[in-house]
Design a protein that fits this description.
Blueprint (H helix, E strand, L loop, with lengths): L2 H17 L17 H12 L1 H16 L12 H4 L4 H20 L6 H28 L3 H8 L3 H21 L8 H4 L1
Length: 187
C-alpha cells in the first residue's frame, strides 16, 4: 500500500473516531446506543472504495478491541466487541466494504441517489444484519425481538446515509479518490 493510501485510510479512521466524540443516545429498552459513527462507515466506503474503506474500519475496530476509548461515550476494549453492540461494530468493516464495492462498480454513472441506496445496502442493511443477529445471540432474544428493537435506529441512519451520499458526491466531483486507484496500483 502506498503512503498516500495509508494517509487516506488513517484519515477516515480518525474521522470515525472523531464522530465518537458526539455523545451516544442511550435508550431504556436496548443496551445498544444511537451513535453518529455509522456515518463514518458510509463515508469510508463511498469516499475511499472497498479496500481502503474496509481497511480504515478494520483499523478502527482493532483500536477499539485493544482498549482505545474511541467509541461514542468513550467506550473501548474487547468487552465492547463481545457485548451487545459487538455485531454492529464488526458489521462496520463489512458495511464499508460493501458500500465501497458498489460505489466502485457504478463509478461512471454515480449519482447522489445511487450512493444513498448503496449506503442503505452496506451501511444499514449489512450492519444491521450482523448487529441484530449478534445482539439476539448475546442477549438471549429471538431474532424478531432484536429486530424490532433495532427499528428505532432506522430514521437516524437514513439521515446519515443521505448526508454521506451528498458528501461523497461532492468529493467525487472535487477530489475523487476512488478513480485514482487503477488496477496496476491495486495489485
Amino acid at each position: 500500500m502506498k503512503l498516500k493510501d495509508m494517509m487516506y485510510v488513517s484519515l477516515l479512521t480518525a474521522i470515525v473516531a472523531a464522530l465518537g466524540l458526539l455523545p451516544p443516545i442511550v435508550l431504556p429498552f436496548t443496551p445498544v446506543p444511537i451513535t453518529s459513527q455509522s456515518l463514518g462507515v458510509m463515508l469510508a466506503g463511498a469516499i475511499l472504495g472497498a479496500r481502503r474503506g474496509c481497511m480504515s474500519l478494520l483499523i478502527f475496530v482493532l483500536l477499539v478491541a485493544i482498549g482505545a476509548p474511541i467509541l461514542s461515550g468513550g467506550r473501548g476494549g474487547f468487552g465492547v466487541i463481545v457485548g451487545p453492540s459487538g455485531g454492529y461494530i464488526i458489521g462496520y468493516i463489512i458495511g464499508a466494504f460493501i458500500v465501497g464495492l458498489l460505489v466502485e462498480k457504478f463509478w461512471n454513472s454515480l449519482t447522489t441517489l445511487k450512493i444513498f441506496l448503496f449506503n442503505i445496502v452496506g451501511g444499514i442493511f449489512v450492519v444491521y444484519l450482523l448487529g441484530v443477529s449478534y445482539y439476539a445471540h448475546v442477549s438471549n432474544l429471538n431474532i424478531g425481538e432484536a429486530a424490532i428493537s433495532a427499528l428505532v435506529y432506522i430514521p437516524g441512519d437514513l439521515i446519515k446515509a443521505l448526508v454521506a451520499a451528498v458528501i461523497a458526491m461532492k468529493m467525487k466531483k472535487s477530489y475523487p479518490l476512488i478513480q485514482k486507484v487503477n488496477k496496476k496500483e491495486a495489485a
